[in-house]
Structure formats: structure tokens, C-alpha cells
Amino acid sequence: MEEWRDLMRSWGFTVHEAAGWRTRDAQPASRYDPTGMFLEHHDASSLLSGNWGALAYVTQKRLAQIVHARDGQITIVAAGVTHHAGVGGPFLDIPANGANTKSVATEVANSGSERYDPRLTRSIIAAEKAWCVVAGRGADRVRGHKEWATPKGRKQDPSIDMNARRADVAAFATTAGEDWFDMATPQELEAIVLKVVRGEGLSGAGDAPLMLKRGYEKAIRDQVTAVLRSEGVSGAGDVSRIVAAIRAELPAEGGAGYSLADVEAATERAVRKVAADASA
Q: pLDDT (tens digit, 9 = 90+) per residue, 191-217?
């Protein structure tokens, strides 16, 4: 789950970690292979249960590895086997009634009749895509509980069209292509900006090396996110313009590493300039 968690965070999604998740396992004596299938559920929670729905119950009863909140945030609640799939199958190489030890599951906070927040939909699709990447599987291995469960009709979750879901997972873009940026959230744009700022984007020929120290990341992330939100920066070209603008705003001589104040000031000036140019 660590690799999956890190990939999701690198894409800009918020992933929390429940206390004790690494050792939470409903069947510690069983051999667990999490690469067989990703099973999507909804928790049937009422809107009155709040953003996280049945998170506490799912965690306590070991009913999934992942919980999705209504706003798209994620919490990892278990690393081992969980009791989520129940009677069903078979499916490909997963035997009948044998999915718990061969799958990863998410419980989505949703009553089954409420509309999904767009942030939640994108977070679920990303989570399933990240599982495909880490497990080395295709989107055909992403299933709904209602598709696994037998007899057919025994389960209704999730309420969405799983064929459409798999198509979205297969099409999910994780690189800086134009399609991805056209639908990127401010948080996702900010994550890419930060990645480039911390990497080779500001250390090319003629530039003093940018050596960010531990502790810089959160400050820059928070600042860029705030500016992006306030200025409404979005679109395919904004990240490259922001990176170029930050390079231009940094002092010519960075020495052994720019100070945090230098980087913060350059970042704010650069993002605001790009936003102003875009709205002109």
C-alpha cells in the first residue's frame, strides 16, 4: 500500500493513514495477494454521517483497505486481508468466494442514491488507476461489488455504471498531457508545479542549483495552492509558464541553496504574474 499511497500523493490526491493500518488484517494466517482485483463498494451511509461516512465502522470491522470520503479524500485503513467481497465469482483466476485474499477494496462514502461529488469521482478513478499501475493489471480487473456478488442482484453497490468506470480508469492520464491539464484541479496543478520546481526544472544550464531543504515542501505547496485557488490558474500551458516565471524571479546566484524566503517570494510573484497574464 505504500507504493500505491505514494503514487496517489504524487498525483496530488490527499491520502490519510489510519492508526494501525499497516498491521490491520482480518485473516493474518492467510496468504494475501492484493493484485487480483480492485473491488469498489459504497458504504450505504446517510448524508447525516458526514464526509467520511462509515469510516470508523469499516476500520473496526476490517471491511476494506481504503475508504473514500464524500469530498474525495482518502484514508488507508488496512494493509492486510479484509472481509469485503463475500460470496461471489469466480472471476478470471480468482476462485468462487475467494476474493478477500486476492483483492483490494475501497468503501466509498455514499448512500447509494446520492450524486457523487466530481472530486470523489476523480479520486476513485485515480485510486483504481494507481492500483492498476502498482499491481501491473489492466482496468478489466477493476470491478464493482455488484459484479462479483452471486447470485446476481444480491448486491447493488456501487450504484454507478462499472463499464463506464473501467473506461475512465483506462483513459486516466497521469502525465502532463494537454487532456490531463484541461481537467486538472488546482491541487493537481500545484503538485506538478512543485515536482518541477524541486527537480530539474530549475537546475538547467545557466541556473544556480535549487537545493530545497526538508521543510520547504509544505510551505511552497501551501503557498502555490493558495495562489492557484485565488487566481484561478488552470489550463494546459500554465505549469510551464509558472516554472519559467519562477526561474526568472529567483535570485541569479543561489549559492548552496536558495533560502526559503527567496523561494516563497519567487513562487508567489511568478504564479500571480502568470495569472494576471492569463486574464489580460
A: 555 554 554 444 333 333 333 333 445
